Amino acid sequence: MDALDVIERIDRSGVTRGLGDRGFSDIREKFFKGVQFSDPPGDPGWFGPDSPVWYVHSHVPLVQVALAAAAMMETLHPDMAWMAYEHTRVLERIDGVPTGHHDRDAMASRAGHSFAFFLGTTMAATPVAERLARVVNAMHDRVHGVRPDGRSYRANDPELLRWNYATIVWALAASHERYHPRPLRGAELDAFYREYTRVGHALGATDLPDSKAGIAEYLEDSLPLLGVTMPTVRLLNPLAPWRHPKSVRPMISLVHWAVQDLQPSWAQELLNVRQLSRPQKAAKRAATKALLTAARGAGQVREIEQAYERAAPTTGSVGHGTGEPTGRDRLPASLTHQVTTP
Question: What is the pTM of this model?
Answer without folding.
Answer: 0.84
